[in-house]
Write a structure and sequence with these properties.
By secondary structure, the chain is α+β, with helices and mostly antiparallel strands. The chain is 43% helix and 20% strand. The chain has two domains: 5-179, no CATH class; 198-221 and 267-431, Nucleotidyltransferase, domain 5 (2-Layer Sandwich), CATH 3.30.420. InterPro entries: Cas12f1-like_TNB (IPR010095), RNA-guided_DNA_endo/Transpos (IPR051399).
């Protein structure tokens, strides 16, 4: 069955005092789009940039710092400009006259990451947190687009656009709806999707390797980042004592240099995580929930919390281009649970970087053990949302030696021996990557 797409215009009942949040969100969204358009449009002197990935790599950090938007809205603003630039380049190739795209119409693009769509209301991300707006539904919605599509459970919400009517001072959601398949087709599609669900788990650390994946990849160097940060703070403190304008300018220059270096390191780490996911055919990447991470993780400082969030955002927006889902799971007991037998106890952490199960004597790197537990938590969430005739689901953890499904079944890869030998005790060459 082909997809049936419909767009439904529905008026929003915005809570009192929250209209300005939506207006500010629009202003910052358009700032992202116009900034990107100015950067990408290089006609006639050079070729215009039409690569979304190139634009996001160049502008994402800057626009995140310049706005209060969530990562997803910044990304959507960049992509809107690149799509418009592509259209302009196509017109130029046809010999038509056109110019740099300009965005001034009131609109903001929302998808399921920046908005939560319900049948009677929508929750929208803004520069000041979320705002929940009820739909203004007619008394008799039957045989209207709202009744036929918006309120129809056979249709699901897709990417939608928020617009504002200045003449009536009203906000409207242009909800893009797609009709889902019938029960038999939906069940078959879910079964087909489940066969290809493979999860990469990622554990983040304040020392040692910045990130460790469930495939046994040790990525980045948190110790080096900490050292660079301490040296910078020491030098800045010394310069601040002089109090001169020259010292102040030097501090600003150092700060910019340090910030760029850290962001480059985080970009490299995000690319390596995505390489692991792509090389192992992953459909999902799992991180632990970053909320209140400074309170939960020993030695974590404000700098680490910022770095972890930024790394997650890099992975998230890059993964979208690869059609890989990125989600967060509860961190509870991921460091104490044995990824082999499931026994959970605080004594399993024999040392800072070593895990030794008190029940089955399974030993491996503690961060690697945690990354497998993080992956397994997302597997359970995915499994709970599936309906399978045999009671199980072929979801898998991505491991360097093969795949491990939710029910404990291990499938070795062609070049693998056993999971314990090839994955759980990584060699020096793997750790050094």
């Amino acid at each position: 069955m082909e997809d049936v797409i419909r767009t439904v215009k529905v008026k929003l009942d915005v809570p009192e005092g929250r209209c300005d949040d939506l207006h500010q969100t629009k202003e910052q969204f358009l700032h992202c789009a116009n900034t990107t358009a100015a950067w990408a449009w290089r006609h006639p002197d050079e070729h215009c940039v039409t690569s979304k990935q190139q634009a996001e790599t160049a502008l994402y950090d800057r626009l995140r710092n310049e706005t209060e938007l969530t990562a997803n809205l910044v990304q959507k603003g960049i992509r809107r400009a690149i799509e418009a630039t592509k259209s302009g380049v196509a017109r130029l190739k046809k010999g038509e006259t056109t110019s740099q795209p300009q965005f001034d119409a009131w609109s903001v693009v929302y998808d399921k990451r920046s908005a939560t769509f319900h049948r009677d209301h929508v929750s929208l991300s803004t520069v000041n947190g979320r705002v929940e707006c009820e739909y203004v539904i007619p008394d008799d919605p039957e045989e209207t687009p709202i009744g036929e599509h918006l309120l129809n459970e056979e249709y699901e919400f897709r990417m939608s656009t928020l617009q504002y009517d200045r003449s009536t001072e009203a906000f409207y959601l242009h909800a893009r709806m797609r009709r889902t398949t019938d029960d038999h087709e939906q069940s078959a599609a879910a079964s087909s999707d489940a066969e290809h669900r493979t999860v990469l788990g990622v554990d983040l650390n304040v020392d040692g390797s910045l990130a460790v994946t469930s495939t046994g990849a040790f990525i980045g160097n948190a110790d080096e980042m900490n050292h660079r940060r301490r040296e910078f703070e020491k030098t800045r403190g010394s310069m601040q004592q002089t109090g001169t304008r020259s010292a102040h300018l030097s501090i600003q220059s150092m700060d910019d240099r340090e910030h760029r270096w850290i962001q480059d390191e985080l970009h490299r780490a995000s690319n390596q995580i995505l390489d692991e996911a792509r090389n192992h055919g992953c459909t999902h990447i799992a991180f632990e929930d970053l909320t209140d991470i400074r309170d939960r993780m020993a030695g974590a400082k404000r700098f680490h919390a910022w770095a972890f969030r930024r790394l997650y955002e890099y992975v998230e927006y890059k993964a979208e281009m690869l059609e890989i889902e990125v989600e967060q799971v509860s961190p509870a007991y991921t460091s104490q649970r044995c990824s082999k037998c499931g026994f959970t106890h605080e004594r399993n952490r024999g040392s800072k970087h070593q895990f030794a199960c008190q029940k089955c004597d399974y030993e491996l790197n503690a961060d690697y053990n945690a990354s497998k537990n993080i992956a397994r938590k997302l597997l359970k969430r995915l499994h709970s949302g599936q309906k399978s005739s045999d009671g199980g689901a072929p979801c898998q953890c991505a491991l360097t030696s093969g795949t491990l499904n939710l029910n404990g079944g291990f499938t070795a890869s062609v070049d693998s021996t056993t999971e314990g030998e090839s994955t759980d005790k990584p060699t020096t060459s793997v750790v050094g990557h």
